[in-house]
Each structure stands twice: as structure tokens, then as C-alpha cells.
Amino acid sequence: MPPQPGNFGASTISCPDSGKKRYLSQFGYLPPVNPTSGGIISEDTVYKAIMDFQAFAGLNITGTMDNETASMMSLPRCGVKDKVGASTDGRSKRYALQGSRWRVKKLTYKISKYPRSLDKASVDKDIARAFAVWSEYTDLTFTQKKSGQVHIDIRFERGEHGDGDPFDGPGGTLAHAYFPVYGGDAHFDDSEHWSINSYRGTNLFQVAAHEFGHSLGLSHSDIKAALMAPFYRGYEPNFLLDNDDIYGIQALYGPKSNDVAGTEVHQRTTSSPTGEEDSVLCTDSKVDTMFNSAEGHTYVFKGDYYWKLTDDGVASGYPRLISSSWKGLPGKIDAAFTYKNGKTYFFKGSKYWRYVGKRIDGDYPKDISEGFTGIPDNIDAVTVWTGNGKIYFYKGTKFWRFDPAQRPPVKSTYPKLISNWEGVPNNMDAALTYHGYTYFFKDNAYYRFNDRTFSVDVADPAFPRATAFWWFGCKSASRGTLGNIAWKNNYSVDPSENGNLENNGGDFLSDDYDKGNDGEIMFDTGSTDELVTSSNQDSANSGAVSIFSRGFLRLAIAATALIITKTCIIT
């Protein structure tokens, strides 16, 4: 996690016009306009928002409102925000789960209001086809009803239509839909020229299939070929669902039962079929530490016990004693992380332990000062940043960057203030790096830090969010943020179904884990530092800089144009 970009001199950035800033705000890249501030927002914030949009849209990351960026913003698109809790794994498959799903698989829908430009029979047929896109790869079924309560209500509306998200006429926003936690309804702009099996107008089937992905719990994807990409691509007569979409919907609902081997989607362990909440974590979600194991499991430590997380919350059979699984490891751990060779490091007080899986790896514990020179005792949290592979230790209001390839491993410019990273709390309890994002936990809330923009994400619901609901599957807990944002309740339309909404366990996806090919950590008897890898030893001796990811280099180059002091005004 590098420092915030600084002031590099004269700025070449021009503030985008008010329409572009409204666009960035509308789709989650900028915060909503605050009437009390007069719409003033720093140019630094706008710059990072443009970079984030460019990265999501697959554009050249410049941080400036260039022609390519402006053209992308002018495309017809879905009205759902791009940033609503999506996670990425940094690889080619980037399906995004919003965080909620339907508990039942037999869903109903009705078309409460039809478009003016198409006959009802044609609309019914294309809407059914759009739902079938998703039922082809899952056990979901969709039944149309003409009246009564349904899971998903579909309407064609113009302008302001009662939900606070008015349509904008032809072009622009084509439709929007609500995630299961908000009710799942889908609205289409009746000002559009909707068409059936035609290159003319806007193809209803393709737009509807996209919107129903949101109704089922999928966020926008940054894979251009994916149906869940936000931008309308035009009529495709031979439309096929992209693998990215298939992986996403099956991560939520599982593969079709008669085709379990047909699509390889790694499934996490499911939680207890009884649906019982964990009495400890749901009562007090403050934790000691969280970490991902080399096997891809996410563990929570609290006191003398630990839990394993799943897509739905907590796996059955937990909590368990830490000492029963990690022999020799005490309770009340301060922090933990797994390095790129798969070895896990635990920290408590002035000591640390190293494990391979759940087996202690040598003569431990050892002093932190021996294996991690320059790092203080009694740390709060530790993470490995995705951009450069360096290790970040946090304590109180400060952080230290530890680089195994550098001598000394901690530069003299550290420690630095955590406040350098916008929105990250001091005195945190735990930190976890997962699929391109860094999560910070403090008390009963968590913050999602965007490793591309170096700040806590602007999202809906806003951060910090309630850890109990989003990570531990505590359905009785608050679903909103610490600001007590009201969430739309979802109750089953069938009393026998005992509720139809199932939380997806937070902002983590599958437990796939890529160790990479960066060499193994080995103990260097000639050094006092623990983390020396076979691949970075040469660079450590030669003074070469560590290897950055391709994406981070692009951001670093772009950052040279930044000037923080200017402001823009959203009107």
C-alpha cells in the first residue's frame, strides 16, 4: 500500500464539467453531493475517481478527462452503480457479488407496467427468455404471475417514477434493478425505443437479462465481454452468457444439479443448514485478527477461539479452540498473515510464530525484533499489499512498511501516519487482504480500502459497514452502516418459506488462492530478518527495487500529474 500520491508540481489536470462529475457521483466513483459544502470537492478526489473509472472500464489510466474517457461515459448503460461492494481477484475472471441473494430458488415475477412501444406478448416472451439466461446454469426457476405478491416486480416507466432514481429520456440510463436485499425489482426507461430481435433500437432481451443479474445479486463486472458489464453493446443475435457471468451466478446459487461437473466453479463450505447464527460473533463482532490461509480459508480469531468463514457466514462446528488446531499457539493473537509461499505468521506481544498449514514450522516463538527488524511489539494488524507484495504493519496511529528485499527492511522514513490513507481508522483490530482489496476492522465495523485509489471505497451502503451482517451472516444484525442507513426489508411472499433473503457473507468470493511463482520464503542465517525469498535475495543484495504489478506501475506513472490543492465544484 504505497503512500498517497503527492504534489508533483504544476498540474495538467482540468476539472471535468459538471455533467461528468455528476456521472462519477451517480455511478459510485464520487461521493454524493453534500448541499452544505456547496458541491466543493478536491481535485485529488476527482482525479482518483477518474482513475478508478478508467481502470474499471478498461481504459488507459491517465486521471484526466480525455476523449476516450468522455466517449465511454456517453455510452448507453445500466443505471446501477458500478461500485456497490464488488470484489475483484486481480485475474481474468472478475464477477462481482453484491452481498445478498434469494434463499429460495423458485422465484416469481410480474410485469406491472408494459412499454408503450411493444405488444404485451412479445414483452412476455423476451422477459421469460431473459430469466432463462440465468436458470440455464442454476436450479433457479422463474414463474410469471399476473397479480398478487411476487419476488421481482417489473415496470416500464418514464422520468421520475417514485424510487428516487428518475430516468433521463432516450439514451443514457436504460434501466436499473435492485439487489435482493432491496427487493429485486427491475425498472426500464419507457422513453427508450425497445426492440425485439433487431439491430434497431435497444434490445429488450439483453438489457433485461443484465438487469435480472442485479435482481439475483450480481454487481457490475469489469470484464467487457460479460453480460454484467454496465455498458450496452448493441444487439447480439447469437448472444451467449460469458464465463464470468456463469461463475458469478453459480457462486451465489451453485451449479445446475444435473450439470455439477459441467462448469468448474469452486464452492466454499456451506454454513450450518439450520441457519443458526453464531452467538458469540453476532453478539459482539469485534475480533482479534482475521487472515486467509494458504488453502484459501478465511479464519477469525477472538480470545482463545477461532471460526472459519463461508459464503453464508460461519461454517458449522465452530468456534473451536485455537490450541486444538494450531499446537503451541496461544490465544488472544494480535495479528496474522499468510505470505506468498503459504506460510502463516502469528504475532502476539513481542513474539511471533510461523506455521505451515496448522503445523509449527521450526523453533518458535521468536522475538519480533529478530525476524522483523524495525517492527514494534504489540502490533494491531498486518497485511500484504497486492500492488507490490510488501508487508504493512499497523499500530495505533502509524504504519510500517517491511520489504524483505531491502536492507534494512524498514526504511528510515517509517513509521508514517495511517491518516495518509483516506478513511482508514487508527487503532484498528484486524486487517485482511482479499481479491484486490484491503479490509480494515475496528470494533464492530469494517472498511474496504481500494488498492487502486488508495482510499476507502465510496459505495452503497457506505463504509464503515456492520461486520456482523456482512461477514458473519448475522441476519438479526443491522444491515446498513454505522450511520444507521435504513435497508429495505425482504420477507418471503410464501409464509412457509421462512424468509427469502440470504446474506452472502460479506465482501469475499471463492476461496481460490494463487500463491504465484515468486519463490519460497527461506530463513537467511546471515540475516536477522525472517522474510527472505529465493526470488528476492538477489535484488536485496544488489539494491534493486522490488517488483511492482503492471497495474500499479500504470497508476504510479499517472500519479505524477496530480496536484492535491485544487478543488472542483459539482453543480
UniProtKB/TrEMBL annotation:
<keyword id="KW-0862">Zinc</keyword>
<comment type="similarity">
    <text>Belongs to the peptidase M10A family.</text>
</comment>
<dbReference type="InterPro" id="IPR006026">
    <property type="entry name" value="Peptidase_Metallo"/>
</dbReference>
<feature type="binding site">
    <location>
        <position position="163"/>
    </location>
    <ligand>
        <name>Zn(2+) 1</name>
    </ligand>
</feature>
<feature type="binding site">
    <location>
        <position position="185"/>
    </location>
    <ligand>
        <name>Ca(2+) 2</name>
    </ligand>
</feature>
<feature type="repeat" description="Hemopexin">
    <location>
        <begin position="426"/>
        <end position="474"/>
    </location>
</feature>
<dbReference type="InterPro" id="IPR021190">
    <property type="entry name" value="Pept_M10A"/>
</dbReference>
<dbReference type="GO" id="GO:0004222">
    <property type="term" value="F:metalloendopeptidase activity"/>
</dbReference>
<dbReference type="InterPro" id="IPR002477">
    <property type="entry name" value="Peptidoglycan-bd-like"/>
</dbReference>
<keyword id="KW-0865">Zymogen</keyword>
<feature type="binding site">
    <location>
        <position position="169"/>
    </location>
    <ligand>
        <name>Ca(2+) 3</name>
    </ligand>
</feature>
<feature type="binding site">
    <location>
        <position position="192"/>
    </location>
    <ligand>
        <name>Ca(2+) 1</name>
    </ligand>
</feature>
<feature type="binding site">
    <location>
        <position position="161"/>
    </location>
    <ligand>
        <name>Zn(2+) 1</name>
    </ligand>
</feature>
<dbReference type="GO" id="GO:0030198">
    <property type="term" value="P:extracellular matrix organization"/>
</dbReference>
<feature type="binding site">
    <location>
        <position position="189"/>
    </location>
    <ligand>
        <name>Ca(2+) 3</name>
    </ligand>
</feature>
<keyword id="KW-1015">Disulfide bond</keyword>
<feature type="binding site">
    <location>
        <position position="210"/>
    </location>
    <ligand>
        <name>Zn(2+) 2</name>
    </ligand>
</feature>
<dbReference type="GO" id="GO:0030574">
    <property type="term" value="P:collagen catabolic process"/>
</dbReference>
<feature type="modified residue" description="Phosphotyrosine; by PKDCC">
    <location>
        <position position="364"/>
    </location>
</feature>
<feature type="binding site">
    <location>
        <position position="214"/>
    </location>
    <ligand>
        <name>Zn(2+) 2</name>
    </ligand>
</feature>
<feature type="binding site">
    <location>
        <position position="168"/>
    </location>
    <ligand>
        <name>Ca(2+) 3</name>
    </ligand>
</feature>
<dbReference type="GO" id="GO:0008270">
    <property type="term" value="F:zinc ion binding"/>
</dbReference>
<feature type="binding site">
    <location>
        <position position="228"/>
    </location>
    <ligand>
        <name>Zn(2+) 2</name>
    </ligand>
</feature>
<dbReference type="GO" id="GO:0031012">
    <property type="term" value="C:extracellular matrix"/>
</dbReference>
<dbReference type="InterPro" id="IPR036365">
    <property type="entry name" value="PGBD-like_sf"/>
</dbReference>
<feature type="binding site">
    <location>
        <position position="187"/>
    </location>
    <ligand>
        <name>Zn(2+) 1</name>
    </ligand>
</feature>
<feature type="repeat" description="Hemopexin">
    <location>
        <begin position="330"/>
        <end position="375"/>
    </location>
</feature>
<keyword id="KW-0732">Signal</keyword>
<keyword id="KW-0482">Metalloprotease</keyword>
<dbReference type="Pfam" id="PF00045">
    <property type="entry name" value="Hemopexin"/>
</dbReference>
<protein>
    <recommendedName>
        <fullName>Peptidase metallopeptidase domain-containing protein</fullName>
    </recommendedName>
</protein>
<keyword id="KW-0645">Protease</keyword>
<keyword id="KW-0479">Metal-binding</keyword>
<feature type="binding site">
    <location>
        <position position="334"/>
    </location>
    <ligand>
        <name>Ca(2+) 4</name>
    </ligand>
</feature>
<feature type="binding site">
    <location>
        <position position="192"/>
    </location>
    <ligand>
        <name>Ca(2+) 3</name>
    </ligand>
</feature>
<feature type="binding site">
    <location>
        <position position="429"/>
    </location>
    <ligand>
        <name>Ca(2+) 4</name>
    </ligand>
</feature>
<keyword id="KW-0106">Calcium</keyword>
<dbReference type="InterPro" id="IPR018486">
    <property type="entry name" value="Hemopexin_CS"/>
</dbReference>
<dbReference type="InterPro" id="IPR024079">
    <property type="entry name" value="MetalloPept_cat_dom_sf"/>
</dbReference>
<feature type="binding site">
    <location>
        <position position="190"/>
    </location>
    <ligand>
        <name>Ca(2+) 1</name>
    </ligand>
</feature>
<feature type="active site">
    <location>
        <position position="211"/>
    </location>
</feature>
<feature type="repeat" description="Hemopexin">
    <location>
        <begin position="376"/>
        <end position="425"/>
    </location>
</feature>
